[in-house]
Write a structure and sequence with these properties.
By secondary structure, this protein is α+β, with helices and mostly antiparallel strands. The chain contains 17 helices and 12 strands. The protein has a 5-stranded mixed sheet. The structure holds protoporphyrin IX containing FE.
Length: 417
């Protein structure tokens, strides 16, 4: 284990302080680190400390080398968990290393590949229509709760073949699990996970008994070379899916809208051609917002990252939001340019085995919702200040009041997109 010999982050920089993420990630501090201490020792009040990795190339190098930088050994959250909770989370593929991870990913990946997602495209378009229908007559809403949060919980209900109200409850449980350690106590967090696993087990039993045209049934039926998911494995995957796909997508949409309001010229550009600009706009909002702030790895052996020696057992934390503003890769990185091309952002991870499995879903959800909002509520504008999430892991607005001219709901149009 390292004694932290190397550059230590200076006083005044605390990447574990949720207040530093209110209103935006601490980009000035991250820029300083990229320039002066790209692999810097970051002390921790209740832990060993960790190496903060802030440059694009280093974030990618760590993400692509699971043999040296393990997700299994200490998990992917900065705070060290006790052995019992770590053992439980290791049931999720996000906490596995190859070859265990490779076997698991092979079983679940087929339903997330581009052609499979395409089959859900019209359904996602219809969900976006329904969600905007739900708010358009009121003339005002909370964009985070009523629109951005509705999309992932509606999608998960649709693709898993479960009632919409259950999807909302599951989304709420996710928020509890992702809250900053000070905001929610350990028992409440564990209860939320237990409730979700219990729910997933009911889904597994019901879908095995009566398979439907949904992703849960497909996952349970998938068999590759005689191998398949057990009920227990399905439950942990269900929990990961809801956790990974819920507040990430919500924050991309809610915080993405906030970013657009802060850049009126870019918003105008998007409004002028929502469908034409949607693809590159979503990529740029992913880069600019970077809803997942960081992931942790643990060094399995002594190694070198840039100029820094890392000892076996050290915690290494990659900061995606920083890599996405690295001036070595992105021209004018602090400028929002909805047409940015190329845009090799790492919002879905730095490549390697854990690259976001739901990236195609997230892109389609974001495109459908933003296009629907801009075409149906063209004069949408902020109606008060956002409230920010109390988290240093997932970045974004917890609420964003907006107003617009009320309009009539439309009827959901299958195949319109
Ligand atoms: C804007 C939305 C999203 C963002 C920013 C995001 C970001 C990420 C990141 C950073 C990782 C970890 C990458 C790594 O460790 O190398 C990840 C993994 C994952 N994501 Fe996403 N994600 C999003 C949406 C989704 C959605 C919608 C789903 C599912 C429907 C999903 C499912 C997953 C899963 C299952 C993993 C674990 C993959 C593995 O361990 O092999 N994500 N995501």
């Amino acid at each position: 284990m390292s004694d932290g010999t190397g550059t230590v982050v200076p006083d005044g920089i605390d990447l574990l302080d949720a207040a530093a993420f209110a209103g935006g990630q601490p980009h000035a501090q991250l820029r300083w680190l990229r320039e002066h201490a790209p692999v810097a020792w970051h002390p921790e009040a209740d832990g060993t400390g960790f190496w903060a990795v802030t440059r694009y190339d280093d974030v990618r190098a760590v993400s692509r080398d699971p043999e040296t930088f393990s997700s299994h050994r200490g998990g992917v959250m900065v705070a060290d968990a006790d052995e019992a909770s770590l053992a439980a989370t290791r049931n999720m593929m996000l906490y596995m290393d190859p070859p265990e991870h490779t076997r698991y990913r092979r079983l679940v990946a087929p339903v997330f590949k581009r052609p499979a997602v395409r089959a859900w495209l019209d359904r996602i378009g219809d969900l976006a229509v329904e969600i905007v229908d739900g708010v358009c007559e009121a003339g005002a809403c909370d964009l985070v709760a009523d629109v951005a949060g509705e999309m992932p919980s509606a999608l998960i209900s649709q693709i898993m073949g479960i009632p919409r109200a259950d999807g909302r409850r599951l989304h709420h449980l996710t928020e509890t699990m992702h809250a900053a350690p000070g905001a929610v106590d350990a028992t409440t967090r564990a209860d939320a996970a237990a409730e979700m696993i219990g729910y997933a087990l009911e889904v597994a039993r019901a879908k095995r008994a009566t398979p439907g045209d949904d992703l849960a049934s497909l996952l349970l039926a998938t068999e590759i070379d005689g191998d398949h998911l057990s009920d227990e494995e399905f439950c942990w995957f269900f929990l990961l899916l809801i956790n990974a796909g819920g507040d990430t997508t919500r924050n991309l949409l809610g915080t993405g809208a906030h970013v657009l309001f802060e850049h009126p010229a870019e918003l105008e550009r998007f409004r002028a051609d929502p469908r034409g600009l949607a693809d590159s706009a979503v990529e740029e909002l992913l880069r600019y917002v970077s809803p997942v702030v960081h992931m942790r790895r643990t060094a399995t052996r002594t190694t070198q990252l840039g100029d820094q020696r890392i000892a076996a057992g050290d915690k290494v934390v990659v900061f995606y939001g920083s890599a996405n503003r690295d001036e070595r890769v992105f021209a004018e990185p602090d400028r929002l340019d909805l047409g940015r091309d190329p845009n090799p952002h790492v919002a879905f991870g730095g490549g390697g085995p854990h690259f976001c499995l739901g990236a195609h879903f997230a892109r389609v959800e974001a495109r459908a919702t933003l296009v629907e909002l801009l075409t149906r509520l063209p004069d949408i504008e902020p109606d008060g200040e956002p409230r920010w999430l109390d988290s240093t892991f997932i970045y974004g607005a917890a609420s964003l009041p907006v107003r617009y001219t009320p309009t009539r709901p439309t009827v959901a149009r299958a195949g319109a997109r």
